[in-house]
Amino acid sequence: MDFELSDEQQLLEQSISRLLADTYSFEQRKNYMKEPGGWSKTNWSRLAEQGLLGLPFSEAQGGFGAGAAEIMVVMEAFGRSLVLEPYLATVVVGGGFLRHAGQPAQKLAYLTPIINGNKTFAFAQLERDSRYELHDVSTSARKLRNTYVIEGEKCAVINGENADTLIVSARTNGAQRDKGGISVFLVPADAKGIAKKAYPTQDGLHAADFSFSGVEVGADALIGDLGDGLPLIASVVDEARAALCAEAVGVMDESLKITIKHLKTRTQFGVPISSFQSLQHRIADMFIAIEQARSMSIFATMATGFKDARARADAVAAAKVQIGRSGKFVGQQSVQLHGGIGMTMEAKIGHYFKRLTIIDRTFGDADFYLRRLCERGALL
Predict the structure, then answer these.
(1) What is the pLDDT of residues 267-297, one digit of tens each?
(2) Angle in degrees, CA 16, 262, 264, rounded to 5
(3) Radius of gyration for the alpha carbons in the chain, expressed in angstroms and rounded
(4) How much is the pTM?
């Protein structure tokens, strides 16, 4: 099977690379981190001008009708530059819910502002006791005449600090760990009854914890079918996991590039340490780990289009296992080959390792998915 990028996809990759080369040096990124919410509104507008925010949406909705492969290209490029802007939270996740199950009125109200860069989203799903299980939801949404009243707490909501709109998973019936009875709602981030605690994360992004107390939303806030939101959540989250896999490949690619450059410039005994055979072997091992991750990232991207939900989930889980293992190995080797400088905030390589670590733990880490694949017999 041919996994080469098409001419259009290569042009997309080149366009993004040129944009990031001009706007996303390491020093520029440090300045963006100081802005409210931890990312640049100017850069977000640039992404909108380039059409990147409208990439996965249909032409009828004002987008470009691109698919998962194009998102993979974008996320790899973002990984190489450690982009801070909430593309995953807004376009991949928020846009994914609207694309798959949004009502016509919801698409009309939200897609154009997303594409134009006027609205950002955050997915409030994780709870303190749920770990990585999407069906473990204790936040409730009680029907009250023509509205729903949301009560509960969500934590570690990426882009929660700046998001205009929250997508909230809430239980409309059943017990906390039932797979049925979960619904998905669009909630204005400034709705009455919402309390927010924002904070920076280890990789330079920003997140927030939310408390919902008597938050009322109309019946038109429901996305998808009442009480049957888990399949929708699983589908969108699998797309997000595939996008994260692609981002991780970009992060690892750049980590290897930075490390090789360091080895060629640092000298020991009067020669560059890149000439030492033992270090060359480490670089070769890092390259192999990255190529294994790249193959699984492509597989996960293809799998997002599978009709069989279980086959899709198993493929994405397998990719997350490899991405987690490769990311840990590449990150550790990169920092170690830099020596003591690799542990400083001034060195780029430590920031790449931090991002790889957080990617592994977003929507489930390698150990979680390996255990799931073993339980399902999907390793055979």
Answers:
(1) 889 899 999 999 999 999 999 999 999 999 9
(2) 110
(3) 21
(4) 0.96
